[in-house]
Design goal:
The protein is of the alpha+beta class and 69 residues long. It has one domain. 64% of the residues lie in helices and 17% in strands. It has helices spanning 3-22, 43-66, and strands spanning 26-30, 35-41. α1 (3-22) runs antiparallel to α2 (43-66).
């Protein structure tokens, strides 16, 4: 991973966190390829998923920039 891609990963993580905190409805995916279904999931679960994945992205990017490869 280069420094440019680490910064892109951090920006993607921030975008995921922002999206997770602003989206009002979350829908479950069905099947292996993530086809959308009509089943809604609780807002707290969707936010937790987006914020959790965004945090992982940010952590990976910062770890690379700090030299913890």
């Amino acid at each position: 991973m280069t420094n440019t891609s680490a910064i892109i990963v951090i920006v993607m993580g921030l975008g995921m966190i922002a999206a997770g905190l602003t989206i009002k409805q979350f829908y479950a995916a069905k099947g292996m390829y993530g086809a959308l279904s009509d089943k809604k999931i609780p807002r707290w679960a969707g936010r937790l998923l987006f914020v959790g994945i965004g945090t992982v992205f940010i952590s990976v990017g910062i770890a690379h920039l700090c030299g913890y490869n």
